[in-house]
Give the backbone structure.
Amino acid sequence: MVRHGRRPGRYVRGLLRKVNLHVFEKSLDNGYRNITSASRPVNTPADLKGFKIRVPAIPLWVSMFKALGAAPTVIPFADLYSALQTRVVDGQETPLGLIRSGKLYEVQKFCSLTGHTWDGHFIFGKAKKFQALPGEVRAALTTHFTAAALKQREDIARVNAEAQVEMARYGITFNRPDPAPFRNLLQGAGFYTEWRRKYGEDAWSALEKYTGRLT
């Protein structure tokens, strides 16, 4: 049961304000993250069993891939191409635009459009500094940051769409797996229960308002 009407983004912005940050309303979009592989497409959770996948140093993501049966390995993005080339890892997960800009298609053959994680960034700064600015300056910053964020979202949607078309020409094979079996496995493995406990009921209620019941 949702105990408040706050959207997840609004809820997170509220938490950031509590630590004296001014957060602008519109966040930047980096797209959804998708899994690439050198050996096989990911169609079902079974395809991730023992799969050596590079992930960033974010505990939530490491935990998720462990729960899915994969073998996540933390590697900096700057070292990712060589790690894939030398088969230190079998695959990775990033938005389509990053797969193209990093030329990962040169060392990967399959891209599964799992969309398992959304990637984005808040625009924020010190609240005291922002409030000390004249009202017309605060208004101008808010207006222009909002417009810029909306334009950036349009740009990243175009970049990701173009990246898929371009990489298909390079020989990357795309597939779109059914997300239900992956979600069911995460539920059974206790992944959602673990992170509900860590994030707390308020945060989890805000999330489940949009995802439906996860635990």
